[in-house]
Design a protein that fits this description.
Elements (H helix, E strand, L loop, with lengths): L6 E3 L6 H10 L5 E4 L1 H6 L2 H9 L3 E4 L12 H10 L4 H8 L3 H10 L13 H9 L4 H8 L3 H9 L2
Helix pairs in contact: 5-6, 8-9
Length: 154
């Protein structure tokens, strides 16, 4: 029994058995909300009976999933600015790695603190200094395809 709950939202048409279950589960129930389409299909007899029990039935839109952020975006962004990687943030806040990436994209953070195998700025600087990709590859002992990838990356 959930004695603290006073309002619930349902997504099925009310039936007599459902009303009994709801009253047993939520003894302090004061309001039942449902989508307008379901409200139209609900028997007026049920609505009146619930009204006599001081339970109002209302049509209300409840679209989409509720935000699960709980203000965690702030902490993700803060940890990102401190230099933590997405994996470290994920472990520290005990949220999924995909959720970390999503929150960073959502906040439009400039998140580029992942460890790179090669120094991209050095490779680009050598290219601007006039070295060919093959020369850069030989000088830095990096595969030629990696040099091309870094130079062509936007």
């Amino acid at each position: 029994m959930d004695e603290d709950v006073t309002t619930i939202h349902i997504s099925k048409t009310l039936s007599s058995s459902m009303i009994v279950e709801l009253i047993e589960k939520y003894p302090n129930l004061e309001e039942i909300t449902c989508p307008p389409s379901i409200y139209k299909r609900t028997s007026k007899t049920y609505i009146e009976a619930l009204s006599q029990l001081d339970i109002n039935v209302k049509a209300k839109y409840e679209w989409g999933a509720k935000s699960r952020s709980n203000g965690i975006e702030f902490y993700v962004l803060k940890l990102s600015n401190e230099g933590l990687t997405a994996r470290q943030i994920s472990k520290k806040l005990d949220i999924s790695l995909n959720r970390v990436y999503y929150l960073l994209r959502k906040s439009k953070a400039d998140f580029d603190n992942r460890k790179r195998k090669y120094n991209h700025t050095e490779i680009k600087q050598l290219r601007e200094d006039g070295f060919s990709p093959k020369e850069i590859s030989q000088n830095l002992d990096i595969p030629l395809r990696s040099v091309y990838y870094i130079l062509n990356k936007k």
